[in-house]
Amino acid sequence: MKLITKRISFENKLFILTLLTGLLPCSILFGILYSSDLAIYAKISLVSFSLVLVYLAFLVRKIVVYQLGTLTNVLEALTCEDYSMRARVPACNGVLSEFSHLLNNLAETLAQQSLITKEKHILLHKVITQIDVAIIATDNRNNITLMNPAAEKLFSCHFNKMQGWPLKALGLPLPPPGQYRQVVEFDLREHKKKVYLHCDEYFENGVKQQLLFITDIQNLLREEERQAWQKLLRVLSHEINNSLAPIASISDTLSRIMVNKHHAQWPELESDFKEGLAVIKDRADSLNNFIQSYQQLTKLPPPDKTLFDLVPLIASITSLFEGVDIRVKAQALEVYTDEIQLKQVLVNLIKNAHESMKDNPQGSIIICCQQQDNLVEIQVIDEGSGISNMDNVFVPFYTTKEKGTGIGLVLSRQLIMNNGGDLDIRNNANGIGVQASIFLPAMDS
């Protein structure tokens, strides 16, 4: 009996109770009518009254089912994150009216909170998308769960391809758990990259996750280095020019005096005097040319970028080096950069490559062009003697050439960085020659 009672729904129990409440007195009256001799109209009236009671019982059930069904629909909509539905509030006061008011207030509150949450999500998405800092999220097993566009650009990959992959697939070292701030260096596209790595933790569904903020500080460090050298060059230029100007002026004045004056009484002294003045003038001009060459680093013009094909540009450059074995491996590839500045860099790199092969006159220079994701790479590979001191390659003033100024590679890298790219120099893996790699941003497709 208890099992049957539990299976009966609430609205059916209410219907049965209502029906029993009305039919019980009716049954008593039916017994009285059956045993007594009453008119037929009285019996019909009693039967009609019983039918009315049954109808009212069904009506009560319908009203309760409708009201509860409406409230159920509202609650179901709330669980499905649909906050647009509202419960119908009865006109009369009572528990049902209070419950409907409370349910509507709950729906309104959840709707406002949902709107605020969506607006914050949109704001957060815009910030993550537009910020220059690379952001990577990983799960508790160090698998990638999020990458923003800055991270995709830094690592030259797409999140759709890297989702679920381990963090070490990007070449990053695995950071220790907890907060972590440090400058790290790792291999990226076959050259070293310095970044500032900030790690933090957050929770998702009660599970600890990791968030990595990666700031590319390599260009910043180089810019600081360049500015430091610029300040030094300005000081050197000021001081040396202050010395060169009077030397040149005095030498010119003494030269004019010697031309206008008769010196027959001391011809030997005159000869020595003229020779000394010539030396002073020559050294002054030499120092002045030296300073003028270094001032190029402090007066880089802004790039005048245009869209052009690399193949004709490389062909025009190789034609300048007659008798040099230059092999070009490139297909039609367009770049958007300053053509004159890129040409200046390529001429300098090919010239350096040719000069490094003095001990190997049969060697060749290979120029390769290729595009990898959002980067265009131009390689100049020689078969020369290589670089013995790689740490000083981009240090101004440093040179191994007898008459070199030590600004060629420094100026070349500044010109490439001026166009939003990078220049990497390294010895070939086989121990013969040098590979110079120019990285430039590719045009968006």
From TrEMBL:
Gene3D superfamilies documented for this protein: 1.10.287.130, Histidine kinase-like ATPase, C-terminal domain (3.30.565.10), PAS domain (3.30.450.20)
GO molecular function: ATP binding; phosphorelay sensor kinase activity
EC code(s) of this entry: 2.7.13.3
UniProt keywords, alphabetically: ATP-binding, Kinase, Membrane, Nucleotide-binding, Phosphoprotein, Transferase, Transmembrane, Transmembrane helix, Two-component regulatory system
Reaction(s) catalysed (UniProt annotation): ATP + protein L-histidine = ADP + protein N-phospho-L-histidine
Pfam families: HATPase_c, PAS_8
PANTHER family according to UniProt: C4-DICARBOXYLATE TRANSPORT SENSOR PROTEIN DCTB (PTHR43065:SF46), SENSOR HISTIDINE KINASE (PTHR43065)
Name this polypeptide is given: histidine kinase
Organism field: Shewanella violacea (strain JCM 10179 / CIP 106290 / LMG 19151 / DSS12)
Lineage, highest ranks first: Bacteria, Pseudomonadati, Pseudomonadota, Gammaproteobacteria, Alteromonadales
